[in-house]
Amino acid sequence: MSLIVLISLTSLTFNNCPRIEHITRLSYTGSCINLFYGCTRLQDIQGTITCVGSANGIFSTCYNLNSFDNVVFNFNGCNSLSSAFYKCAWLKYSDIEKVLNRCGNNLTNINSMCYAKNIGEGNITPEYPISTRAQYT
Prior knowledge:
Layout: E1 22-30, E2 44-54, E3 71-80, H1 93-101
Parallel strand pairs: 1-2, 2-3
């Protein structure tokens, strides 16, 4: 097994990595635009995320993400959460509130922040009915 150490990252993306299920020991500071976009099997994250600037689409289409219990959000510098939780059907609103509570006065855009979130709450949508949730696990 190889060990890769990345120091002083200011740009990182797991964008469209559908096979990632768990992320541990994350320590990231930088722009969070589409950081985990398309990680359709991602269930949980452990670590610290510090947002500088925008977090648009940060967890968009993370269908199986269900908790932020092990994540520390430093979003005081975050200015936008547009579409941040798009189609995060299994994420609880209390977890979304945890992110919002970590944002400072710079946050000015929450447009469509939770758009299509209701998938996992007993509502059927043509694109992702509850009966097909298993295909994302």
